[in-house]
Structure formats: C-alpha cells, structure tokens
Amino acid sequence: MDNREITLLFGGDICFEDNGERFFVDLGPLLEKADFRMAMLENPYIINPDEPKYMKRDARFLDPLVGRLDLVTLAGNHIYDFEERGVKDTIQWCENVGIKHCGAGPDIVAASKPAFVEKKGLKVGVLAYNVIGGTTKWAGEPGSGKSGCSYVRFHRAYKPLDEIDQEMNIKFEHDVWQIKKPIKMDKEFMGYNFLDHESLIKMGREVYEAKKQCDILITYFHKGYVHRPIEVAPFEKLVSYIAIDNGADVVMASHSHVMHGIEMYKGKAIYHGLNNFIMYVPSLSPKYTDRAHASQTELEWVKNRIDRFGFVPDPEYPSYPFHPESVYTATAKLVIRDKKIVENRAIMMKVEKDGIPYVHGNTPVGNECLDYLRKITDGAGLNCKYDWCGDEVVISEK
To answer: Rounded CA gap, 53 and 85, in Å?
Structure first.
C-alpha cells in the first residue's frame, strides 16, 4: 500500500490578453505546492501572429503557464474562433512547451482522446467535452478537414418566459402533442438543452475505456448557463452522473463565468462550476478605450452581452467585466492516497479590482467566499456541506 499523499489542483477558465505573470502573486505558490495542476484554456492562441485580429491572442502571452500547469483542456465554445489556424496553433503551443492537452484536435477522433499525466507513480487521465455548443466549434469526422473540440451533442427546445413559472394543465393523448396552428414568435423565449442519447452513450463508452488506462480519471465539462448564478440545469447533472457511472472519479466544469455549487454522487464529487481561474478581458468592458484593436463585431458584443445577460459589469473592474457575483471563485483540490481520492477540497479565492484572483483561507474574506459557496449550493438544491480544515475547505455530503 502506497500511503504517500498526492495532491491534484484544478482551475476554471483562463484567458490572457497580454503577459499574465502578475496574476500568479497568490496562484503561483498554490500551484507550486500541488503535484498535478490543470485548468481550462478558454481561447485559441496564435504562434507568431501576423494579422491585427490575432494580436490579443499571441501565444507568447501564455508563457507564465509553463511550469505551472501540467495539462489544459481545450473543449470550449471559443476554440474555433480563429478557425483551423487557431486550433492548430494552440495545440502546437501546448506540445512545444510540454503542457498536455485534451478536448480539441484535427477531427473528432483526436479531440475525444484522453490525456494522461504521471506523478509519483499515479497515472491521472483527463477527458474534456463541450456540452453547450456552438456547433460550429465542434470537431468533424475524420477526413472532413474540420478541426475543433470534443462534445456531447444536445437538442434545444424553447419555452415562453411568461410560462416558465406557471403550472400548465395540459392533457396529452398517447404522449403526442399535435400542433394545429402556426406559432407566433412574438415574445421572449428561454432555451433548454436536452442531451442527445447517442452522444451520451458515446461519451460513456469513452469514459469507460479511459478509466481502464489510468488510476484517477477526471471528466471536465464546459457547461452551465452563462452569467447565471445558482442554477444547475438538469442536463448538467445528467451528463455528470453518466460520467461517474462509467468510471470517472470526479467531475469538474467551467464556462458560465460564475461559480456554481458542488454535489456528491455515489460518493464522488461534481464541481458544477469552478468559475474563472484567470480571466483578463478588458476588451469586453464598457470602459475599454483601445478601439483601434477592437473590431466592430467586438464593440457591438460589449453592448449586446449586457442586454442579453441582464447585468452591468462593475466599472471598478475594468479588466474583469463579469457578473458582480463572479468575484467569488474557487480552485478544486483532490487529496490522493493509495491511488484513491480520500478528500475533495475547495480553495477559496476572490477577484479584486485589479482583476487578480487572491487566495483566502479561514479569514473574514475567506468566510465571505465560503458563505457564497454555501448559498449557491443550497439554492441549487445540491447535497454538499463545507468545513474549514486549516485554510482549505473540506467537502462532504450532508
């Protein structure tokens, strides 16, 4: 029996628009203490950018990650923003600097392959999937010439907003709903995701096969309704449960740019939303002044995202223009003994006005962050409780 303690650390989304060394004032020491470190790389980056549209995504900006991360997932909704070159250059950069990657590739077969890292005799495997679209970012079949990310396919149905909270007494005849007249789209609708059965089966098989090849398997999903606090949708739970049922030892997730709660399922942790790890995007701020390097599309999106998502970024956070509750974030930590997870933990962080995430232990600010985690966990009806152990939070089932 190997009783050596091995620690695995997981962050949420990462995006730099220039050199990011300053963001590691607290994160640097945290990462140095862990045996395995990973996070989600939100955007594609270009090696030797030669057009203005690439300048904010110069791959050299990622250099502070070298030596601090062992693996990045790439299965997100922005990986194909620069089309084929963006996917190719991002993967090439990872391979050039020795950071393992998963979740994207020249076709769906390559994108769906797990990545493995060995630390102190422990083999860690990671599978990553985009579960929120857009479909144009998904990798194509071999021979299609379409690179992109791995994914779990879904179908989307829409329901009028003014009916969401109403009880509807509808009689279904033989479970068939016949539409007898045209539907007028003259009101606002909310979209709901329903996972595709065949895609779920495929994902489950990939998880099952990957688990055979490693000691600890992490499934990392890009999921969650963006900028919406508390809510964890049923499809998020389902895809997480199926991953665990097929062998995943833990589920991690990011995308929504707000933290979401944690639940236990069959004794295994599901971190439904780690929020941002490091996010520096001043070009999304209403106060952004470098208009010479912003396209008209980007300028329009700055305004449209406020209208679409229903929040106004805090002007005191010019490089971090997210939902006000997004200042509360966390890093997940797993403690491993004898090649098994013996503790699931969370490390509390808060993003300050300089856009930098600072680590907080059992202090007034740390408890402010933990109170928020408790609020969103209870609000979503999840089953975890949290207790301080030194300056880290231990997660257990209620």
So the answer is: 13
- Give the amino acid at 68: R
| pLDDT score, position 236 | 97
Angle (CA) 120 123 126, round 5° = 130
> Has residue 12 got a pLDDT over 70?
yes
What span, in angstroms and rounded, lies between the C-alpha atoms of 329 and 257?
Answer: 9
Single-letter code of the amino acid located at 313: P
Task: Specify the residue for token string 């945290």.
Answer: 30
Does residue 279 contact residue 259 with C-beta atoms inside 8 Å? no
- Span of 108-122, 195-209, 238-252, 287-301 with lowest mean pLDDT: 287-301
H helix or E strand, kind and range, residue 265: strand 260-265
Q: How far apart are CA 28 and CA 278, in angstroms?
A: 12
**Cα atoms in the 13 Å half-sphere on the side-chain side of 14:** 29
Enter the pTM of the model: 0.91
Burial level of 261, CB count in 10 A (0-12/13-18/19+)? buried
Which string of b and e fits 48-69 if b means at least 16 CB within 10 Å?
A: ebeeeebebbbbebbebbeebb
Residues 6+ apart with CB under 8 A from 322: 227, 257, 258, 276, 279, 313
pLDDT in tens, 307-339: 777 788 888 998 999 999 999 999 999 999 999
Total length of the chain: 398
> How many Å apart are CA 132 and CA 153, to the nearest integer?
8
Calculate the dihedral angle through the C-alpha atoms of 102, 106, 107, 112, rounding to the nearest 10 degrees.
-10
pLDDT in tens, 41-93: 999 999 999 998 899 899 999 999 999 999 999 999 999 999 999 999 999 99
253 vs 43: CA distance, rounded Å: 16
Structural domains of the chain in order of their starting residue, each with its CATH number: 6-156+195-397 (3.60.21.10)
